[in-house]
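Z., the sequence and structure:
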Amino acid sequence: MHSYLRWVPIGLLAGLVLGVGQSAMAQAPAPAPEEDALGEAPAAPEEAPPAEPEPEPAAAAQLSAAPAAPAPAPTPPPPAPTAVSSIPDGEAPPAPIPPQFPPAIPNIDYGARLRVATRFQNYDDPEKFNDISQQADADIYMGGQIHRMLKWQASVTISYAGTISQVQQTNVLPLDVIARFEPMPEFNIYMGRMIVVSDRYTPSGPWGMDEFYYPGVFPGAAQVALQKAGPQQRDLGINVWGAPLGGMIKYYLGVYQIHDPALNPLLSGRIQVSLLSGEPAFYQRTTYMGTKDLVSLGFGGQYQKAGSVGTAPPAMMGMPAPMAPTDDYSYFTGDLTVDKVLGAAGTVSLNAAYSRFQGDFQRWESFWLVGAGYLMPKPVGIGKIRFAVRYQRAAEANIEGLDDSSILDGQISYNVAAWFARFQLGYRRMEVFQAATAAVGARLVVGNQIYLGVTLADP
């Protein structure tokens, strides 16, 4: 063996060995790639081929004297995968979008949402469309947690709506200021300024429904046909709530209007049962845009001693101002909400509610609404189209000569990423009775309106 190697040309032997080495390198497995974006483990590498036998000492010495061959060019890395949106066009996220890494505690989160509408309606002749106005609303909110049981929430609201013959004015007001103690899903305590909960629509708000206009608000009426609450349906108070069985049952029990010691506390509560799917969060929606099946039945009520307040009579000269008359206030409401996905046929939505008011100085005696919606199953472009119709009616109380007031809404909306972006085209027919004033008597005001709305919310 040794004598044979002495007569083999060194260059030929080196080329032969290098060729064998390159062949072995070509058969060796490539390094295992890292996990892909979906978290799938890569395939296991193939078994490496058996190692070549080491050359004998003499051959090794001759090989070490041979000139080194140039190393093969490194293989370029594969191109980075193209980023894909977390929310497919026209669909909703399958679950809440998690952060890129688990948040540390303490932490802070923030978001924003806005609504803008352009309305076509004549102010002096409400049945005509030959005038234009606009409104804009936005919320900026933030929250965080100090401990997994101790959380906080704060937000402000910004609104602008044109007022006849008035200088442009933007209102910035506090919205929520809440200290939250959340030891378990079945029992939580909120304290501060927050929504007053007894009906279905307040935990949803205008952001959680497809219709642009919030129900129970009759233009020109002094009182809304809604539960009692402060501005933006919020008040200072304490709320105990929970969602047992994954939100299949949910309850709220609150004490509000405790900012003024002269007022009697407003007691407000609600209980609801949700079939097919639970609603475990404090807030909820009136339609889930085809993301879950839901049949929800709820009941709520309110009571406040001396909570129905009338208008104080004018003071007589030299006499102290008289107190406004009062009566005990009570309120009862019941509602039904249905969202059903019909597979390839789309999603149908039904909702209905009835409310009853008690108190000598309440504007309304009763209020009810019915609504229906249909969401198309397939996207058109980047969103889905939804059709909705809603009818509201409120019966007058304690005002002579006035009949029921009503509003009919019809709307087509284009929804991107479920409810995160909505473009709404709608028509309103309003028949609202207005009480007599010093200038005019009680009268029926009929109006027509076409609106173009945009609602954007940070998911």
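The chain has two domains: 1-25+50-67, 108-309+325-457. The radius of gyration is 34 Å.

Let me know what you think.
H.
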